[in-house]
Amino acid sequence: MSVLSGNTNIIVEQPREVQHLLSLKVMRQSSPSTSKGTEKKSQAESLDPTVSKSASRIHMRDLSENELSSLPSMNTNAIENIYLGATFDSYLIVNNDSARIARDISIRAELQTEKQRLQLADTTSNSVPTIEPHKAYEFVIKHEIKELGIHNLVCMVQYTTDEGVKRYLKKFYRFQVLNPFAVKTKVNNMADGTVFLEVQIQNVAERLMYLERMNFEPGEVFNYKDLNFEENENLNIANEQANLENDNKEDEKNSESKIVKLSKVKIDQESIFGKNSYLNPQDIRQYLYMLTPKPEIDNKLARTTNALGKLEIVWRSNYGETGRLQTSQLIRKPPILDEIEFSVTSIPTLIELEVPFKLGCRIRNRTTTTLKITIIAVKSKMGSVLLSGPSTNYLGELASDAFVEFSLEFFPLSPGLQKVGGLKVVDKISGYTKEIDHLTDIFVLFSK
């Protein structure tokens, strides 16, 4: 650029950009590209492990520092999305595009997220001695993605020219991490402390996903049962022949006897979803787990804890990409425990109209003091199932955190589904009263 002022010519030269001997390209291993005509394949074919799908590489466009700071978000179509839990496989290719030798080549790679900076590679202490003209050297980086959002990859190459001049080449790259699944939970708390945990998994990725493994890790105070499998018990009887040898008796040396043995009971577990554990985009699947308090854990602690456990998901896409996810602690809103708990422990399998029946009941004292428990019938709230016998039953003293089991006899007046209730529990010492409007439901049949 030149500026004329009178007869004086002032020439200001712009600084020339350094011509590097080396160039840097970052390639990501991606799923194989498919043409429009072959995009819609059958689900069985896309998940068949015998079908060969060779992965390809895609070039990641480098950004300038200005672009990096001015682009808070990115077009997710610019490069393929990476899903949470997957492994970011990248190839850093250093090319010598000049006719001169580059020496002492080292590379540093750093991954920057919203929360942290992670050093993925640093070969400063183990540099490449030389890269000949028109040759290339490849570095491999693998990193398990554990955070959502925009990720910036910063790569710097350091090398020395023949003249002994150290030079630095810096490049910036960007990609986005999306969540492959949406997880929702629903908790059902039972009166005895049992928890039924419903987990809903939705495939929110843009590709078909195969659930290789779904593991639930219960909280410290719970045992659990996976209710997503059916158990088939097969008793296999095997006939075995055994040769019994007796070294002390020559005539029994080659004797044989047939022994019939029962093999151990073999329990086969089969998923209720069948053998096809894949989810199309936007598909939803629901899992159910039953949590019970451990016997050695204080019952009150187990019933009031909010930590239920964690869920681990191992997934594979229809192109063979694999990933592993672990949810944060699944929590619930702990139920409020009544000071006096009244629950039903047993119900007859057959209840007939106008035929008395007995309910097994349990009352637990959740207070810190001793109670004197009395059960009183409130006839106006009983409906079609009345309490038989005396309207007042004294159960005696009940210590703190102790329980008493007893039975109550009722008389059904109407057929069909009926509510059992209309009871009142009273502590004679403190005067505390708890009304039981709805104890349980029963189904009453016509008597034969």
Automatic annotation (TrEMBL):
Residues 28-59 are annotated as: Disordered. Residues 227-259 form a coiled coil. Signal peptide: none annotated. Residues 236-335 form the Trafficking protein particle complex subunit 13 middle domain. Residues 348-444 form the Trafficking protein particle complex subunit 13 C-terminal domain. GO terms for cellular component: TRAPPIII protein complex. Keywords: Coiled coil. Residues 20-177 form the Trafficking protein particle complex subunit 13 N-terminal domain. Belongs to the TRAPPC13 family. This is DUF974-domain-containing protein. It comes from Rhizophagus irregularis. The lineage of its organism: Eukaryota, Fungi, Fungi incertae sedis, Mucoromycota, Glomeromycotina.
